[in-house]
């Protein structure tokens, strides 16, 4: 049993064993194919990266392989939009768990075009609209990518144009959400331009190493522990973590908090970014998804890491 103080944990062995033991799990869920390009991924891919505040990054499996981060990008886009407009964002997006699927439209009618939170698609599209304001789509996309590169401290992070195009060609639901919100006056830019920003943001590709590094500022009160750069304020980091905990896994958020106990954000590419405040930023990747669209094996790995390290935001 490796529970105990941080220094007592043999993180290398723990991560390696988690990878080796869970590699044998056959039931890994279903790879998303509603964006056809995502359906091409090898379902056996499996990676773990744990970046700690002291600058280490412990990895296992395909941790250097880039994958589509999809909705994990919504964390970075939210941080960027809050930097632009601050609390004014909350006039256009809520801060409550939705209890509905990531791409659901049902609440928007009752709630007059104000999405429940910034991590469901409707909310993230509003965030894209905020980032686009006053810019051309190309500039807004560049700004999001720059933010992610700074957070990761890695200029090689890029966008997969084939995924962006595939999303654009099949984004009927997202187009419906954006148009519906437009009807309520909650879109400031032409819908197709905002969607272009949103699709490109979702098509950012990163490895687990890059992603774990990019999450470090959220584990360290807003500051990158390696560079000392303040990415967001301490208060904002806490609030983003709170939103990740409550809303980061859609209608699976409660279950994730119960099983894992860290703020986390999933994406339909099969990645999950989990934040352990004061300790680490963890990225896992396995493309198969559960019924809520969250990585099935990824959740199991995080559950195991939480159990074995004793890390949790709910107690020591
Ligand atoms: N780009 C995806 C979509 O809009 C993101 C969804 C997700 O990762 N949950 O459907």
CATH fold annotation of the largest domain? Beta-lactamase
Number of helices: 13
Question: What is the name of the CATH superfamily of the largest domain?
Answer: DD-peptidase/beta-lactamase superfamily
Distance between the termini: 16 Å
Radius of gyration: 18 Å
Helix/strand class: alpha+beta
Unique ligands: glutamine
Topology record:
Blueprint: H1 11-22, E1 30-31, E2 47-52, E3 57-61, E4 67-68, H2 73-85, H3 106-110, H4 121-132, H5 137-152, E5 158-159, H6 161-170, H7 172-183, H8 191-202, E6 204-206, H9 208-214, H10 216-219, H11 234-247, H12 253-259, E7 264-266, E8 271-276, E9 280-285, E10 288-289, H13 296-309
Antiparallel strand pairs: 1-10, 2-3, 2-9, 4-6, 5-6, 7-8, 8-9
Helix pairs in contact: 1-13, 2-4, 2-11, 4-7, 4-8, 5-8, 5-9, 6-8, 7-8
Bound molecules: glutamine.
